[in-house]
């Protein structure tokens, strides 16, 4: 019996020693420093990934916002452009109605003149009235009224790039002046002058070297264009989005606009010669 007890005690002692040895070999019972270090590195890596994802999401959101703002800006510009075109269309319709009314009035006046000439035989009075109107339409008489003054000046931009270093881009050309004059005429200008030169049906506006010829008289910048008509309509025609002022702005061409309550424009004083044009045979006027 005693032998069995001694044998069991020896077995128990051997097992305890074996377990202690195994613990020493495997490091059981002590904190694992490598596992602790791996936990710290894993947390830092996850946090870095989180920050990158957060930054990427922020950039994507900003990009979407930027695209949306760009689309909204384009749509707003198109809407404003459509409103401006609609306003111009309404003005053109009103202008057409006004011109149609003037035609009817002229027909009535012509009938009255004919009746007066036939009943009274006073042709001199009828001819005098027609002459006054013809001179007014032809630009031969001095006129005055409300309107605007447009001052065009050459660019003051210092040329710094080789791509656009041609100085001709930065000075006023005849086409620039023609664009302004055409817009004024379309907006209802009744009389126009450039540097005091009254424009009539036969007036020319063309480049002559570095200057511009008007009615065969040469002028250099600045060019002062005066026009009689509705000041708001004339100024609006030049300042409309994408109009003459916007087209010349990138080159630094100055286009100053001033509204005036009273403008005086002298009549045309040059000569007019019709060498080939003759009245149509059988014409009553």
Automatic annotation (TrEMBL):
Entry annotated with the keyword tRNA processing: no
Bilayer-crossing regions: 43-64
Coiled-coil features, chain-numbered ranges: 82-116
Signal peptide: none
Pfam families: DUF881 (PF05949)
Keywords attached to this entry: Coiled coil, Membrane, Transmembrane, Transmembrane helix
InterPro entries: DUF881
Gene3D superfamilies: Protein of unknown function DUF881
Record PANTHER family: UPF0749 PROTEIN RV1825, UPF0749 PROTEIN YLXX
Protein name: Division initiation protein
Species in which this protein is naturally found: bioreactor metagenome
């Amino acid at each position: 019996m005693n032998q069995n007890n001694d044998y069991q005690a020896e077995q128990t002692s051997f097992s305890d020693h074996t377990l202690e040895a195994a613990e020493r070999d495997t490091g059981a019972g002590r904190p694992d420093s490598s596992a602790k270090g791996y936990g710290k590195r894993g947390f830092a890596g996850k946090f870095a990934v989180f920050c990158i994802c957060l930054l990427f999401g922020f950039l994507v959101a900003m990009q979407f916002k930027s695209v949306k703002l760009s689309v909204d800006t384009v749509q707003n510009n198109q809407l404003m452009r459509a409103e401006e075109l609609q306003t111009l269309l309404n003005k053109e319709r009103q202008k057409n109605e006004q011109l149609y009314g003037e035609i009817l009035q002229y027909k009535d006046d012509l009938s009255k003149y004919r009746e007066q000439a036939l009943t009274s035989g006073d042709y001199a009075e009828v001819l005098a009235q027609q002459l006054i109107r013809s001179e007014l339409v032809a630009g031969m008489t001095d006129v005055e009224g409300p309107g605007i003054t447009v001052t065009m000046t050459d660019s003051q931009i210092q040329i710094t790039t080789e791509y656009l270093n041609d100085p001709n881009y930065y000075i006023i050309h005849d086409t620039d002046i023609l664009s302004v004059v055409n817009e004024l005429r379309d907006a209802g200008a009744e009389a126009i002058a450039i540097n005091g030169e009254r424009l009539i049906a036969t007036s020319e506006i063309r480049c002559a070297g570095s200057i511009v010829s008007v009615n065969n008289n040469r002028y250099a910048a600045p060019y002062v264009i005066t026009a009689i008509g509705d000041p708001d309509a004339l100024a609006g025609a030049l300042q409309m989005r994408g109009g003459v002022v916007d087209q010349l702005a990138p080159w630094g061409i100055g286009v100053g606009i001033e509204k005036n309550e009273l403008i005086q424009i002298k009549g045309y004083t040059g000569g007019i010669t019709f060498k080939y044009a003759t009245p149509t045979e059988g014409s009553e006027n």
